[in-house]
Amino acid sequence: xxxxxxxxxxxxxxxxxxxxxxxxxxxxxxxxxxxxxxxxxxxxxxxxxxxxxxxxxxxxxxxxxxxxxxxxxxxxxxxxxxxxxxxxxxxxxxxxxxxxxxxxxxxxxxxxxxxxxxxxxxxxxxxxxxxxxxxxxxxxxxxxxxxxxxxxxxxxxxxxxxxxxxxxxxxxxxxxxxxxxxxxxxxxxxxxxxxxxxxxxxxxxxxxxxxxxxxxxxxxxxxxxxxxxxxxxxxxxxxxxxxxxxxxxxxxxxxxxxxxxxxxxxxxxxxxxxxxxxxxxxxxxxxxxxxxxxxxxxxxxxxxxxxxxxxxxxxxxxxxxxxxxxxxxxxxxxxxxxxxxxxxxxxxxxxxxxxxxxxxxxxxxxxxxxxxxxxxxxxxxxxxxxxxxxxxxxxxxxxxxxxxxxxxxxxxxxxxxxxxxxxxxxxxxxxxxxxxxxxxxxxxxxxxxxxx
Length: 452
Prior knowledge:
Blueprint: H1 2-5, E1 8-14, E2 19-26, E3 31-37, H2 43-55, H3 62-65, E4 71-73, H4 76-84, E5 91-96, H5 100-104, H6 106-113, H7 117-125, E6 138-141, E7 144-145, E8 151-153, H8 157-169, E9 174-178, H9 187-203, E10 209-210, H10 228-231, E11 236-239, H11 250-259, E12 261-262, E13 271-272, E14 276-279, H12 285-290, H13 296-302, H14 316-333, H15 343-351, H16 357-372, H17 384-387, H18 407-421, H19 426-433, H20 437-447
């Protein structure tokens, strides 16, 4: 609404070189900056494109704004210096460690470039203009993103928290995050933003944190970019392994759940969200709360309806079904014929404890298919821990001969004998064999035995 009420009065143009920059200033003092590739054949086209880029921040265009203009300054350096002399919030700056003084030179460099040679000599003998952000309100944090956008040194979260505390103590009224190569990959800036907001909340300060929205840095998407929570608006958000959520991030999730609002990086107004949350974890969150690794208030906020899913080792009857499913899936993916799981392989799979649950089973089947190179799966293609899952036992004289016997055949003999000794009672037979009853059922089906 404010953008519609305020008229645009001044246009500044910095044309030539690689890029063409435009500056639009409204009557309320606010301004936007646009950029476009210079066009030596038609400079007006570059100015038009740069103007459209700038005015998009206010959801306006050239046709509506140009008639409002009172004056135009066709001198980029002069306009830059006017902009840099504006007075605003006493911001604190978070930048890459080692670049604190580079940012501090910003205003001095821009001013210096606008002076004639004799004035530059005078400045060398006297003083430079004050930097945009004084050095006592600049803090560097360890992080590096290369020119391809790959994060080579992850941001040090503890340094961000300490830097925020120091900037607040230094009197910062807002925090700006400016990291190298953020136009290639904004992940580190977003992470720093979230940490900064959490730390400010902990300190009891409600300061704006500027960073990633449209125009927050070169390359930021038009209209900003919605996050996963905002994208789930009106639907369901699934958070896997919520027990791994860092402690300093948990208040942010709790605030979203309590208030139903999210803040995009660089924005100062919240966005309403309404979604259903489904969370999963392999940890006992009650124990995590007792150990201080999970917030109690967040636990009781998400633990509205709980569903306990038994571990795979307690669902032996599912092992063969899942293994067959993944075998068929990876065979088709590799363009290979699909075969039925052999009894020998199924016996080893059913006897294993599966500490990694279904993910581990999936990985085992994928690896086995790769190793097989299209040949039918056999026990030798399984990892050593699975091949050894069925403990070897000496066969009774009346059951086994001295001739070589496969492991699953020997196991089938012992199962038959245990069932017979228990008079068909499978609960007692499983107890005698030292396995779960569900595992015994799976082995009976796998070996084609009669459990009665």
